[in-house]
Amino acid sequence: GIQVEQSPPDLILQEGANSTLRCNFSDSVNNLQWFHQNPWGQLINLFYIPSGTKQNGRLSATTVATERYSLLYISSSQTTDSGVYFCAVDRVNDMRFGAGTRLTVKP
Amino acid sequence: DTGVSQDPRHKITKRGQNVTFRCDPISEHNRLYWYRQTLGQGPEFLTYFQNEAQLEKSRLLSDRFSAERPKGSFSTLEIQRTEQGDSAMYLCANGQGPEAFFGQGTRLTVV
After folding, report:
1. What distance in Å separates the CA atoms of residue A9 and residue B83, rounded to the nearest whole number?
2. Of B56, B98, B104, the CB nearest to A42
3. Rounded distance, CA B1 to CA A97, Å?
4. A86–B43: do the CB atoms touch at under 8 Å?
5. Which of A61, A74, B63, B100 is 20 to 30 A (C-alpha) from A8?
6. pLDDT of B27
7. Which of A97, A12, A45, A76 is nearest to B94 (CA)?
8. What are the mean pLDDT values of chain B's consecutive 10-residue runs (111 residues total)?
């Protein structure tokens, strides 16, 4: 099956710093989504981005499908950005997750 | 609110008992997924439904696990003869257009 690798596994930032999270996938995909898992376990949709670039406030994402990777950018990080960020890719009839990047933003 | 509700939110059961979880998606959206997530790991794919048809099953879905989606609406996930290793968060997702939206999950603890 398709392999999804996220890096780094852990990231600690000072409030106000910028960060880049990466998602590599081993085969072509139909869909790609980024999620943020809050402390209560709820997966919050951030971006649906099978290709191209999108921005939503301080967050933006870029997927280069031909090179099989996606990047999530967080600018001017806030303590509320803490949590685990997941990339999920969808080929046919399934959606596979990476292991996530655990982000800690310190005040 | 994603419109996907799961019940119960928490379940504690004794080893060897059967448990059943329910997922209520937005009914007009035909894709439904089940995942299992253990502490510190990403969600692991269990199974996928398109309407009432179960089109994909992971090898993780042993013969103790069964999922149904009668009439393509709500779905149930049953675990028979639970083991301590089944303790996890069980997540349901509903495909709404090209995106999938998750419920809040059912946390299972097997004692």
Report:
1. 29
2. B104
3. 22
4. yes
5. B100
6. 63
7. A45
8. 90 98 84 94 94 88 92 92 97 88 96 97
